């Protein structure tokens, strides 16, 4: 089972700013040095609500390309790329390019999008997101796997589209779909190489999503065993946050030994990859996660 962490591009409340690229790069290199398998970024344009106002975030694919160039071993990808933000044929070309920069370490995570304020702010249509996503998958997957597609739909067109040069990997980077609702799960079962769901905490929080995924696989005639599943897990260290007990709801927390035990439970469930959203997003938190990963691996080897 692979284990990775999210690197935050968003403006952080405790810092009252976003991390600089130097800080983001240092975090990525720390994750690699600590022995984590992967690093991930969120793909958003802004967050906004009436209570807190606007919270900014760096553009994800620019950061991915930079991180692909400065790391050597970790897998990396968006968790997940918002389909609405980019033409799907262009997104596939971007994925091939970043996979080349990384030497074949990209995982292309994609989803239909959900955060309407960023759509409104950047002039992106919010309607028919799953319809658009379904068409996009019919462009993205063949362009990843074969480098060619000829498609004309209601929302997207890619006529005699060819990607060259291509990823160093035959078949291109793997396609991971983030999904939770029935129609999105059916599209996942039909098109994905990997399935992702967020935000999990304790292992039993995965029971309902996995049941729904197996149902979707049955509906489209796919063997669930052929679709590895991955989980984004919210992990908080309350002692580093000065949280009270009520704020812990929805987050995994515990000692190094307890988290190592949870990792073993996730592996027993058949998880292929875990991605951790850490609170706080600090060097100490990443190091503590890595310590739990080392203990989990030591126990597994024993």
How would you describe what is shown here?
The protein is α/β, with parallel strands linked by helices. It has one domain: Luciferase-like domain (TIM Barrel, Alpha-Beta Barrel). 41% of the residues lie in helices and 21% in strands. It is built from 10 helices and 13 strands. A 9-stranded parallel sheet has the order 5-2-1-13-12-11-10-7-6. Strands 3-4 form a two-stranded antiparallel ribbon. β3 and β4 form a beta hairpin.
Key words describing this protein structure:
302 residues; alpha/beta; TIM Barrel; 9-stranded parallel β-sheet; two-stranded antiparallel sheet
The CATH homologous superfamily corresponds to: Luciferase-like domain
**Sequence stretches where pLDDT stays below 50 over 5 or more residues:** none
CATH architecture: Alpha-Beta Barrel
Q: Helicity range of the residues? A: 40-55%
Radius of gyration: 19 Å
Just give the CATH class: Alpha Beta
Write a brief structural summary.
With about 300 residues, the chain is of the alpha/beta class.
Any chance you could write out the topology, listing elements then pairs?
Blueprint: E1 2-6, H1 21-33, E2 38-41, E3 46-49, E4 53-56, H2 60-70, E5 75-78, E6 81-82, H3 88-102, E7 108-111, H4 116-122, H5 129-145, E8 148-152, E9 157-162, E10 175-178, H6 182-191, E11 194-200, H7 207-220, E12 229-236, H8 238-241, H9 256-268, E13 273-279, H10 283-301
Parallel strand pairs: 1-2, 1-13, 2-5, 6-7, 7-10, 10-11, 11-12, 12-13
Antiparallel strand pairs: 3-4, 8-9
């Amino acid at each position: 089972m692979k284990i990775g962490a999210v690197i935050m591009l968003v403006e952080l409340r405790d810092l009252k700013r976003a991390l600089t690229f130097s800080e983001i790069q240092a975090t990525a290199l720390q994750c690699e040095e600590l022995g984590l398998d992967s690093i991930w970024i969120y793909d958003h344009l802004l967050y906004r609500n009436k209570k807190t106002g606007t919270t900014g975030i760096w553009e994800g694919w620019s950061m991915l390309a930079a991180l692909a160039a400065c790391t050597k071993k970790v897998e990396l990808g968006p968790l997940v790329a918002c389909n609405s933000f980019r033409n799907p044929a262009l997104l596939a070309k971007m994925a091939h390019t970043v996979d080349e920069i990384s030497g074949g370490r990209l995982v292309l995570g994609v989803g239909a999008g959900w955060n309407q304020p960023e759509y409104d702010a950047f002039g992106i249509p919010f309607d028919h997101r799953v319809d658009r996503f379904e068409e996009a998958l019919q462009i993205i997957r063949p362009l990843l796997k074969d480098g060619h597609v000829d498609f004309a739909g209601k929302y997207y067109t890619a006529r005699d589209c060819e990607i060259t040069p291509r990823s160093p990997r035959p078949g291109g980077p793997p396609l991971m779909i983030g999904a939770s609702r029935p129609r999105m799960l059916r599209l996942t079962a039909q098109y994905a190489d990997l399935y992702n769901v967020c935000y999990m905490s304790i292992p039993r929080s995965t029971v309902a999503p996995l049941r729904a995924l197996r149902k979707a696989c049955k509906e489209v005639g796919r063997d669930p065993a052929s679709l590895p599943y991955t989980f984004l897990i919210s992990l908080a260290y309350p002692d580093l946050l000065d949280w009270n007990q009520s704020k812990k709801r929805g987050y995994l927390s515990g000692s190094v030994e307890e988290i190592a035990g949870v990792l073993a439970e996730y592996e027993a469930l058949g998880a292929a990859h875990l991605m951790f959203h850490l609170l706080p997003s600090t060097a100490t938190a990443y190091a503590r996660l890595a310590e739990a990963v080392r203990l989990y691996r030591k126990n597994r080897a024993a």
